Amino acid sequence: MPPKTAPAPIPLTVLTGFLGAGKTTLLNRLLRDPALADAAVVVNEAGEVGIDHLLVEHVADGIVALAGGCLCCSMRGDLIRTLEDLLRARDNGRIPPFARLVIETSGLADPIPILQTLTLHPYLAMRYRLAAVVTAFDAVDGPAVVERHEEARRQLAMADRIVLTKTDVADTDQLSAARATIGRIAPAAEIVISGEVGAQALIAEPPIRVRDLDQPPTGHGDVSTISLVSEAALTRRSYDLFVELLRSAHGPKLLRLKGLVRIVEEPGRPLVLQGVRHVFSEPRFLDSWPDGDPRSRLVAIGEGLAPDLLAGLYAAFAGQTAPDRADSAALLENPLAPRAGGLFA
Ligand SMILES: Nc1nc2c(ncn2[C@@H]2O[C@H](COP(=O)(O)OP(=O)(O)OP(=O)(O)O)[C@@H](O)[C@H]2O)c(=O)[nH]1
Question: Which segments cross the bilayer (predicted)?
Answer without folding.
Answer: none
